[in-house]
Amino acid sequence: MRKQMNGMLCLLLAILCYGPLSAQDNKKPVIKDLIAAQEYVFKAQMALPMGGRSRQLTSDYDVKVAKDSVISYLPYFGRAYTAPLDPTQGGIQFTSRQFDYKVTPGKKGGWTILLSPKDANDVRQLSFMISEDGYGTLNVTSNNRQPIMFNGYVTARPPRKNK
Asked: If we measure between CA atoms, which residue out of 15, 126, 134 comes closest to residue 70?
């Protein structure tokens, strides 16, 4: 009975140890494909303002990237040089349909993605640094605010609903 339990325990440990490794191996091409197809979501988990303390984000904040649009729903912590006309439009919230998009392979794997919206009033550039595992940072440069950085990860963009 004891040998059976030891054998089952070894089998369970092998499954638990091998499962995450195979999932990570399968994840690398998926991230590469998402970035190449320009269909992904950057999920922000932590905000790192330039002049303040870092903040763990407990709500769902993201940047949705597609070939035809970029939709940003991010918070902002830091110094703004001009106040928004509409106080309900705080944070880094915009939808852009005209933007420049450039992907550069990283020196140690991963990618640097520069996204420059042409039709967003305040945001000058979004600079993503994404690892092969899908984790990364996003630096947001604005015209009227201090820069802010976000840590997070890339995931597949959910299918769009047809209108």
From this structure: 126
Amino acid 121: pLDDT: 80
Name which of 124, 163, 158 is nearest 141 in CA terms. Answer: 124
Give the Cα separation of 29 and 36 in Å (integer).
10
pTM of this structure: 0.78
16/107 Cα distance (integer angstroms): 32
Cα–Cα dist 36/110, whole Å: 12
Contact 82, 144 (CB under 8 A): yes
Fold topology of 26-156 = Lipocalin (2.40.128)
Of 29, 27, 47, 31, nearest to 157 by C-alpha is 31
Cα–Cα distance for residue pair 74/61, rounded to 1 Å? 5
Question: pLDDT tens digits for 31-68?
Answer: 999 999 999 999 999 999 988 889 999 999 999 999 99
Flag whether pLDDT at 128 surpasses 60.
yes
CA–CA distance, 75 with 63 (Å, rounded to integer): 11
DSSP 116-133: EESS-SSEEEEEEEE-TT
Give the DSSP letter string of 43-57: EEEEEEETTS--EEE
